Write a sequence for this structure.
């Protein structure tokens, strides 16, 4: 009976968020058609017509980057591993700076040339279908386990409510939550998670404040919480000096990899203009503040001696909430955590589906496909991604999804040179980028496997012994290969593809602020 009240209040929060998404998205789609929009074209479905302003972009981009699993995995990492788990804070601060510099010109080029996916940009910039295919497939395979991780976040919440490991009942609840997401995304595309993102932003702010108040009332001030945590026999909260390189490389590598994930750039391409993205990049610090509070909640979980099952540190926050809050409030707070998973899961499925439809299906399977066929394929693929992630989450161990996501982050980081170097006036040779991508993939995968699927791997460089993030090591090899082979290929006069030569002009303002702020010339 103790589980019934939090189950009801949790379900109420999820139901309200889901219904608001369905109703708001339907209304937005109807207005788009009434105003003469593309109404069913893939640009309208995947990018919502590229019309999002500051508030919606801040909610959507923040809601996509700061996932449910992030809000549970970061405090879980601190609970299980100690101080090194705090790497997520400088990582999320670094992404604000990278976003401010990288995203406005990239989105401006995409709008000017009609690019919908990051692979469109690579295809147009280098004139290489093969490089575009490498970026597409890497993005798709890296995204699939990421969607499954959002389901694991939902399942962790359901577990704290007592629905897992009860078998069918928990599976049915997880399937029902995801079914609403699948239907709304299939019909309305990016507009559905956008409305949920607004709800998510409000719920994250409220939940952060309420949980902080509960911890303060029960455990005392932050200083007291840290003192209690240090008195408990657990992981050290102060970072060991030898872990400095690991800490820095994890933060930097994670920040760089984020902007190679296709779903993040899909959201970026939906912005109304470059000024919108600059403002959003700064406002992401608000989401970082909330994540920083959740990191401190991980310390509170140590201090309160919560006891998650072995290997399930992500349950630390749900169990902490369960122990501190009354039953009705527990359901509301855990329902908010469920809602935080819906936005990234939906956007990820849209990103992977659009990549497949545009850059695999149309490019290599059916080049004469109509716009309606392309959109239909993207919608069907979005369902396939969600069903596959659901089957993965229900049938395999949590650690398998975590391992695959770790590999996915290492893989997608190897596509970053093709994206960022494409903004240069003289971009590298497309064959050198392919060689670098392949080397980075092989070395990164080998390091992760040799390290037992740990993100940090030991390296012996002469007399120096350091631990570094495997993705950063792979990226370094990737960039060296590009730097060495690109001039050589040009000297040997190996032909380049039929690329689009771009020039990013100095920012210019418009009367409405809705136009392209960075001019792109071909």
């Amino acid at each position: 009976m103790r589980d019934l009240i939090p189950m009801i209040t949790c379900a109420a929060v999820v139901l309200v968020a889901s219904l608001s998404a369905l109703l708001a998205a339907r209304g937005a789609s109807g207005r788009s058609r009434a105003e003469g929009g593309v109404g069913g074209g893939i640009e309208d479905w995947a990018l919502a017509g590229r019309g999002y302003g500051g508030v919606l972009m801040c909610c959507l981009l923040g809601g996509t980057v700061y996932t449910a699993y992030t809000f549970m995995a970061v405090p879980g990492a601190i609970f299980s591993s100690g101080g090194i788990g705090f790497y997520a804070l400088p990582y999320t601060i670094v992404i604000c700076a990278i976003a401010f510099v990288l995203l406005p010109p990239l989105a401006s080029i995409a709008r000017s040339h009609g690019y919908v996916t990051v692979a469109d940009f690579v295809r147009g910039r280098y004139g290489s279908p093969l490089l575009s295919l490498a970026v597409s497939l890497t993005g798709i395979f890296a995204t699939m386990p990421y969607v499954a991780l959002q389901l694991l976040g939902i399942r962790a919440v359901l577990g704290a409510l007592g629905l897992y490991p009860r078998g069918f009942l928990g599976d049915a609840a997880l399937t029902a939550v995801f079914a609403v997401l699948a239907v709304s995304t299939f019909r309305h595309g990016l507009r559905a998670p956008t409305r949920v993102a607004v709800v998510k932003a409000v719920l994250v702010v409220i939940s952060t404040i309420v949980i902080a108040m509960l911890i303060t009332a029960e455990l005392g001030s932050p200083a007291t919480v840290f003192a209690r945590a240090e008195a408990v026999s657990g992981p050290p909260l102060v970072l060991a000096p030898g872990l400095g390189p690991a800490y820095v490389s994890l933060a930097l590598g994670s920040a760089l990899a984020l902007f190679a994930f296709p779903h993040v750039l899909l959201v970026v391409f939906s912005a109304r203009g470059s000024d919108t993205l600059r403002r959003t990049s700064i406002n992401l610090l608000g989401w970082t503040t909330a994540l920083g509070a959740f990191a401190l909640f991980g310390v509170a979980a140590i201090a309160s001696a919560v006891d998650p099952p072995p290997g399930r540190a992500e349950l630390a926050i749900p169990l902490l909430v369960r122990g501190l809050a009354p039953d009705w409030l527990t359901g509301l707070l855990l329902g908010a955590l469920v809602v935080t998973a819906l936005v990234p899961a939906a956007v990820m499925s849209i990103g992977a589906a659009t990549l497949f439809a545009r850059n695999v299906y149309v490019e290599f399977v059916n080049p004469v496909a109509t716009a309606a066929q392309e959109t239909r394929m993207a919608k069907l693929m979005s369902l396939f991604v969600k069903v596959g992630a659901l089957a993965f989450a229900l049938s395999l161990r949590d650690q398998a999804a975590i391992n695959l996501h770790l590999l996915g982050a290492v893989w997608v980081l190897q596509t970053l040179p093709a994206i960022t170097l494409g903004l240069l006036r003289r971009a590298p040779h497309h064959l050198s980028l392919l060689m670098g991508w392949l080397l980075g993939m092989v070395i990164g995968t080998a390091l992760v496997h040799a390290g037992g699927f740990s993100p940090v791997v030991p390296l012996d460089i002469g007399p120096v012994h350091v631990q570094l993030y495997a993705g950063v090591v792979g990226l370094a090899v990737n960039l060296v290969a590009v730097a060495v082979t690109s001039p050589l290929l040009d000297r040997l006069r190996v032909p380049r593809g039929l690329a689009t030569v771009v020039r990013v002009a100095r920012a210019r303002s418009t009367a409405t602020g809705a136009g392209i702020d960075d001019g792109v010339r071909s």
The chain is about 75% helix and 0% strand. The chain has a mean pLDDT of 85.
